[in-house]
Amino acid sequence: MTPLLQVRDVSKLYGGRIGCGDVSFDLYPGEVMGIVGESGSGKSTLLNCLAGHLVPDSGQVIFDTRADGPVDTVTMSEPARRMLGRTDWAFVHQHAREGLRMGVSAGGNIGERLMAVGGRHYGNIRASAQDWLGRVEIDADRIDDRPSHFSGGMQQRLQIARNLVTGPRLVFMDEPTGGLDVSVQARLLDLLRGLVREMGLSALIVTHDLAVVRLLADRLMVMKDGHVVESGLTDQVLDDPQHAYTQLLVSSVLQV
Amino acid sequence: MSLMDDYNFAYLDEQTKRMIRRAILKGLAVPGYQVPFASREMPMPYGWGTGGVQVSAATLTPDDTLKVIDQGADDTTNAVSIRKFFERTAGVATTEETTEASIIQTRHRIPEVDLTEDQVLVYQVPIPEPLRFLEPRETETRKMHSLEEYGLMHVKLYEDISRHGNISTAFAYPVMVNDRYVMDPSPIPKFDNPKMEMAAIQLFGAGREQRIYAVPPWTKVVSLDFEDYPFEASKADHSCELCGSDSSYLDEVILDDAGNRMFVCSDTDYCRSRREAGHQGRLAGETV
Predict the structure, then answer these.
(1) How many helices (H) and strands (E) does chain B have?
(2) Which entry of B27, B49, B207, B271 is annotated as an active-site residue?
(3) Would you call A144 and B162 a contact, using CB atoms and an 8 Å cutoff?
(4) Is A87 part of any domain?
(5) Domain that holds residue A115
(6) Which residues of A touch B (CB under 8 A)?
(7) Got the DSSP string for B10-70?
(8) CB 3.0–4.6 Å: which of B123, B136, B144, B271 could bond B186 by disulfide?
(9) What is the CATH number of the domain that holds A215?
(10) Mind listing the pLDDT tens digit for each residue in B35-56?
(11) Cβ proximity of B279 and B243 under 8 Å
């Protein structure tokens, strides 16, 4: 089986400081990988390098494209990379307003990716917007409301719908549950878990919340100071941490 | 002493005109592409057609005949002052007759009469970037143009339909030029959009935004739309009440505060020539 994403020695330096250093891993179709670590450990830098938002200083990010098989996305042409960014890839931002157009209705937000890949039939675009609102549990009669009139949890769900409407194969998520209260978080996680399983998505989830990866991720990478210090199956890493930092991280979780 | 002795021909100095001509040629070579140019201060405020005036100045020769229209009319403030400006600084002949003119500077309209190969139509453009109100970052919109990422333009049309039931954008209706660049046709009514595939050269000048773009003769210009909501060149459903034309674009004029109104051609030259040819509308000859 060809990995969907092969990451080889990806490094990103900010001047003399290491953003992330020599990260390598494979992600297989249908697999969900969690990346955890404290603030400043380089997990968002890594995610942005993989998603094409930042250019890594060295290394390869090989994505198994539908048309041409495995291609290094770092060296591929910018139009091709941006095309991937709105078809096969999805990026869920921590803050919904970074990923949404706040001045455009919910339906327009969901339809944007469809129109960007050539959808030119209003009725069909609206129908899929309606369908997706239902799938992320937003009332269909909110389709013409702007996201600025939505609650934080709804905005985040709308962002997910907007990203998944073109049927991507790989989803990058940067702290998808950050800033949401616990009950909303739980619903969102439940929704995400359902969508990931149902659509057979592969996902990379960056978070500092171990509960999120426990629920969603098959595998886990622990980052510290820009380097991966431990990786393995989620349950294995969380239940039997080997590295001193992972042990600290696991033991720091508040038990209620 | 005449002003002609104080100013270089057509106000701008020769180097500036060369710079503008280079931008115009580049614009003609890449139809619909916004060419940056070093826009000059003109003796009129931004928004009064500083871009169009600079393009006209660079295009004019002493043998040209100039016509200036504002919303279709030859006798409105903007048209009168720009016409007077070139009469004084270039000494060129001016006319109000569309067929007589070799260069027509326009704001918000395309003349009703079909233009010919010998004519140049210069548009005044307030905001050249069709994506501006959807994506405020200029760096991003330039990238979207260069990579042909125009999905966002349809988001605007989608929003129109979802809010109003049809594409309510009535002016500055976005067009695709030569299957490549999405272009703002300046705030002409969408009624005029189909006329843009014409024999004359069309030049667009945006002074404050420092952009020039162009559509060469008979270039393919397609108004964007949806398959199930096709583009429609709409106008008021009346005929002109002075000349009786039912195919020209109409202005609505409020006559009193009792709800009376009349519809007249926005192209004053077209309306006058039709009346001179004997056509009459409902209110022709009446004092209103």
Answers:
(1) 7, 12
(2) B271
(3) yes
(4) no
(5) 5-80+92-255
(6) 78-79, 82, 86, 101, 104-105, 107-108, 111-113, 115-117, 119-123, 125-126, 143-144
(7) TSS-HHHHHHHHHHHHHHHHSTT--EE--PPP-SS-TTSSHHHHHHHHHH--TT-EEEEEE
(8) B123
(9) 3.40.50.300
(10) 999 999 999 999 899 999 999 9
(11) yes
Q: What count of other Cβ atoms lies within 10 Å of the Cβ of residue B47?
A: 11
ipTM of the complex: 0.86
Mean pLDDT of chain B: 93
Task: Assess whether B259 carries a catalytic annotation.
Answer: no
The question of whether B285 is a catalytic residue gets the answer no
Look up the pTM and report it. Answer: 0.87
3-state secondary structure at position A20: strand
Distance from chain centroid for Cα A102: 20
The answer to whether residue A44 scores a pLDDT higher than 50 is yes
| Residue B243 among the catalytic residues | yes
**A29 lies in a domain?**
yes
Q: Which pLDDT band, with edges at 50, 70 and 90, does A67 fall under?
A: confident
Give dist(CA B121, CA B28) in Å, integer.
Answer: 13
- A197 contacts A189 by C-beta, under 8 angstroms: no
Looking at the structure of chain A, the number of domains it has is 1
Residue A86 resides in a domain: no
- CA-to-CA distance for B235 and B252, rounded, in angstroms? 11
Q: Answer whether B226 sits within 8 Å of A108, measured CB to CB.
A: no
Domain assignment present for A176 = yes
User: Each residue of B127-142: pLDDT tens digit?
Assistant: 999 999 888 899 999 9
Catalytic residue (one of B51, B207, B265, B281): B265
Q: How many CB atoms lie within 10 A of CB A227?
A: 16
By Cβ distance, the residue of B148, B154, B163 closest to A115 is: B154
- Please, are residues B12 and B54 in contact by the beta-carbon 8 Å criterion? yes
